[in-house]
Amino acid sequence: MRALWPLSVCWVLLALMTSPGAAHVTATGLAIVTIDGSRIGYELTVVPAELPDSTAQTLLAAAAGNRDSAERVSEEMQAAVSVRVNGVACRPGRIAIQGTGSGDGKALLRYVLQCAIAPGLFDLEEDWRGSFGPHYRTIVSMRSAQVSGEYALGEETRRLSVDFGMPAPSGLLGFIRFGIEHILTGYDHLLFLLALLIGATKFWQMLGVATAFTVAHSTTLSLAVLGLMHVPGTIVEPLIAATIVWVAVENMLGERRAWHRAAIAFLFGLVHGLGFADALESMALSGWRLARALLGFNVGVELGQAAAIISMMPLLLWIGRWARGVLVCRLASFAVAATGAWWLVQRVYLG
Predict the structure, then answer these.
(1) Which pairing describes strands 28-36 and 137-143: parallel, antiparallel, or unpaired?
(2) Model confidence over 339-348: pLDDT tens digits?
(3) How far apart, in whole angstroms, are the C-alpha atoms of residue 268 and residue 248?
(4) Does residue 221 sit in the same domain as residue 341?
(5) How far, in Å, CA of 219 to CA of 23, rounded?
(6) Of the candidates 170, 131, 126, 124, which has an alpha carbon nearest to the alpha carbon of residue 147?
(7) Contacting residues for 215 by C-beta, under 8 A, at least 6 apart
(8) Mind listing the pLDDT tens digit for each residue in 220-268?
(9) What percent of the chain has pLDDT over 90?
């Protein structure tokens, strides 16, 4: 019974939002997605009275056993809901439409899909605008042996992705760990940090650059995850590679003034924050889960970044103060620039 409380809360909120006193009525459905090996079950419960009249009549007729209406709903469901595993579309299966049997005026749509393989990277995409109206949204409850949780799909986000090879984190500590892993395996971000810090001769100089980078990427990470700004990954990823090339070329040209480097760290840190945000945006979180994920992930990124800088600091300070350090800095920067340029070409031309 404890597993049912999130669903009960969802329906209580739904009842409050659709009461006569509500200022704006937004149609909301509740979908339960069950994953059993390569079999995907999708059960959507909606309130026909909240939907456009033509759709409501079709749903009620289908639930009452009208064959033509049932076929029409089935066609609309196949067009509106798609599931992919590792990029491969799952095969549509049986669809059933019925009332809930409790006299509550709700309709239940059941959809079974069969995938070629058990979920690795699971993608659910949903777009009911054509049938349920532009402001419709779905609360998705995911249930499987590896992952469970609630997600929101609607006007802002119509797709959720879950990597079953790397289960979605849960709890504050889980998202902190996720943030640490993300930065320590984000080699483009680490290479950018190296390019920023190599050649530094003082601890305070490194601290200023790291702080500017932190403030910047934390800002855009938060704005993007909260839905206040969005830049497609096809733009962000090439820009991240370009920032690496820019800073490395500046190093080779001898530009290492402290104020200039801090300004560059802040400006380009805004771009890197958008890259960090992609890890959370795909989870389609909302409410408290979103706030907790954002806090934990950001803390994890900062901890991982601090660990990386501390591990590099003794060597970088020694190079910065060494008589031949300028030559080493330029040679290392050339290698960094070449790597960044290769990533830039890959991301622009190869996707």
Answers:
(1) parallel
(2) 999 999 988 8
(3) 13
(4) yes
(5) 33
(6) 170
(7) 266, 269
(8) 999 988 888 888 878 888 999 999 999 999 988 887 777 888 999 999 9
(9) 31
pLDDT in tens, 147-173: 667 788 887 788 888 877 665 566 788
Tell whether 150 and 217 lie within a shared domain: no
- Do 73 and 28 share a structural domain? yes
pTM strictly above 0.90: no
Mapping DSSP onto H, E and C, the string for 55-115 reads HHHHHHHHHCCCHHHHHHHHHHHHHHEEEEECCEECEEEEEEEEECCCCCCCEEEEEEEEC
Q: Are 236 and 339 in contact (CB under 8 A)?
A: no
Residue 275 has pLDDT above 50, yes or no: yes
81, 137, 89: which is closest to 109 by C-alpha?
Answer: 81
Tokens 């290492």, residue located: 256
- 292 and 179 in a common domain: yes
Q: Are residues 270 and 141 in the same domain?
A: no
Q: What's the domain range around 113?
A: 2-163
* Residues found in the chain: 351
The b/e string for 156-188 (b: 16+ C-beta within 10 A; e otherwise) is ebbebebbbeeebbeeeebbbbbbbbbbbebeb
